[in-house]
Write a structure and sequence with these properties.
By secondary structure, the chain is mainly beta. The protein has two domains: 77 residues, Sandwich (Immunoglobulin-like); 113 residues, Sandwich (Immunoglobulin-like). The chain is built from no helices and 20 strands. The strands form five sheets. Strands 1, 5, 8, 9 and 10 form a five-stranded mixed beta sheet that branches. 29% of the residues are buried.
Length: 198
């Protein structure tokens, strides 16, 4: 069985799973596969022949494929709350200055919040990328890493670390909050500017 986007959905999204029927030798056979939801309160199969599935509530739902009297093992579909937007935290400065001659060349915290209504959405990936000006072979990293999961309050935090010359004038850091299907939520990406001093 195969689920697009690793079986990750937001409430209201649809999913078309796929599966192959195999014979006793493990070869594919032409067959009509039908689909069933084992957790209809979370995911509902709207069309058993195509597998069209609609996500209804936050949680883990299970789908099962069948061919004749054979049934697959149930596979999980993960449904998350629908994100409304992404933003910088109140009071967080979008600009920071890093002194590269200091022992600690880390930027301030680059904090982003993923919103679902008036609450933060936990467990959502925020991807940090950097554009260096002027372009060059500057070595850098993100701390703790470039992709950070939002915490229980929907907040993701990373810091930009300069590692080696040449020293750039500035770096524009983009923090992207995406839906499971890869599309940006409104307000994403959030952009920060990090400037450097010798």
């Amino acid at each position: 069985m195969f689920f697009p986007d690793s079986g990750r959905l937001e409430i209201g999204d649809t999913l078309y799973p796929s599966a192959r029927a195999l014979n006793g030798h493990g070869d594919s056979v032409a067959a009509q596969v039908f689909w069933t939801s084992l957790d209809t309160g979370i995911v509902a199969v709207d069309d058993s022949a195509t597998g069209l599935t609609i996500s209804k509530a936050v949680g883990t739902g299970r789908l099962q494929a069948r061919f004749g009297g054979l049934r697959s093992n149930p596979e999980n579909v993960f449904v998350f709350v629908r994100l409304d937007s992404a933003s910088v935290l109140t009071g967080v400065d979008l600009r920071d200055t890093v002194t590269v001659s200091a022992p600690d060349s880390l930027s301030d915290s680059l904090s982003v919040k993923a919103w679902a209504g008036t609450s933060g959405a936990p467990g959502r990936p925020v991807v940090y990328t950097a554009a260096i000006y002027p372009a060059g072979a500057t070595a850098f990293t993100f701390v703790p890493k470039a992709t950070v999961q939002t915490d229980a309050n929907g907040i993701a935090v990373a810091r930009f670390k300069f590692k080696a010359a040449p020293v750039p004038d500035s770096v524009v850091v983009s923090a992207a909050v995406k839906r499971p299907n890869g599309s940006d939520v409104p307000g994403s990406p959030v952009r920060f500017v990090v400037e450097f001093r010798p």
